[in-house]
């Protein structure tokens, strides 16, 4: 299914504007696995309209063991964790970065990454490591890193039907943190976010929280109820639907809400055919 969608998207936006093909791991299989591999993959297609587009690259926080491997050194003065990196770069340059520093020239075929004056400043701040044989390297500190750039395989976003997550109860509801990350990465405050298949309104709630304007479209009355619940009533912990009864997801007046809505005001629009049904629902 996703590959047929990609063919259509390539035709609309151009294959050169396909920025990423993302695989998201689902929490459970949605098909029989007796005669095939279990299907635990969802897919996201990231397209832009052209070569210039809004992009704030998402970062994944360092895991403790991963950070220790990447930043193995401890500064004896500050106690900060750091790694050592070269202070030179490939190619020869004739400007300041090609001049001697502390009586040393850059290695053959290379230049300093910084001017001698900047290297002096870094050294004065204790950000240059000197090896026993006098080889300088720059200290890059862990606490200056925002994390690891997110790649195109996502394993850390659980389904919204996990019993510990907040949800509207809509059957195909997507993970809120995942949608929030996508909206934040590809839009700026006051931009308009369009969701043509709004479902439970996860994207709309994320856009509202992030200060974006939004338009949500859906032809399902159950979707409208869920969106109203999310934006006006608040959500509940999904819980164990097998062992205990839950609040009626069709009733916007929810008892025991655990999250307040993000959106104080919004407007519903409907065609004439659905106006009466919408009025009865709201």
TrEMBL record:
- Gene Ontology terms, MF aspect: DNA binding; N-methyltransferase activity
Q: Does the keyword Transferase apply?
A: yes
Q: What is its EC number?
A: 2.1.1.-
Q: What are the entry keywords?
A: Methyltransferase, Transferase
What are its GO cellular component terms?
cytoplasm
Q: Name one Pfam family in it.
A: N6_N4_Mtase
Q: Name one GO biological process term.
A: methylation
Question: Ranges for the DNA methylase N-4/N-6 domain?
Answer: 3-227
Q: Which residues form a coiled coil?
A: none
**Methyltransferase as a keyword?**
yes
Q: Which family does it belong to?
A: Belongs to the N(4)/N(6)-methyltransferase family.
This protein's name: Methyltransferase
Question: Which species expresses this protein natively?
Answer: Candidatus Anaerobiospirillum pullistercoris
């Amino acid at each position: 299914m996703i590959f047929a969608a990609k063919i259509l998207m390539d035709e609309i936006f151009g294959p050169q504007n396909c920025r990423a093909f993302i695989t998201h791991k689902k929490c459970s299989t949605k098909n029989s696995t007796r005669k095939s591999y279990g299907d635990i993959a969802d897919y996201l297609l990231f397209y832009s309209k052209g070569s210039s587009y809004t992009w704030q690259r998402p970062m994944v926080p360092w895991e403790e063991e991963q950070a220790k491997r990447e930043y193995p050194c401890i500064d004896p003065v500050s106690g900060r964790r750091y790694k050592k990196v070269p202070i030179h770069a490939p190619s020869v340059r004739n400007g300041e970065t090609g001049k001697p520093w502390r009586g040393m020239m850059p290695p053959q075929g290379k230049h300093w990454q910084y001017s001698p004056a900047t290297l002096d400043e870094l050294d004065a701040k204790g950000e240059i490591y000197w090896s026993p044989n006098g080889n300088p390297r720059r200290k890059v500190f862990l606490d200056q890193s925002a994390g690891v750039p997110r790649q195109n395989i996502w394993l850390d976003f659980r389904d919204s039907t996990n019993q510990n997550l907040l949800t509207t109860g809509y059957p195909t509801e997507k993970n809120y943190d995942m949608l929030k990350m996508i909206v934040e990465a590809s839009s700026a405050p006051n931009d308009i976010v369009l969701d043509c298949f709004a479902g439970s309104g996860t994207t709309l709630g994320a856009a509202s929280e992030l200060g974006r304007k939004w338009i949500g479209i859906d032809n399902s009355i159950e979707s409208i109820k869920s969106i109203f619940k999310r934006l006006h009533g608040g959500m509940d912990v999904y819980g164990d639907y097998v062992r205990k009864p839950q609040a009626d997801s069709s009733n916007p007046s929810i008892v025991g809400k655990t999250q307040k809505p993000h959106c104080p005001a919004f407007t519903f629009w409907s065609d004439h055919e659905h106006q009466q049904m919408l009025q009865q629902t709201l």
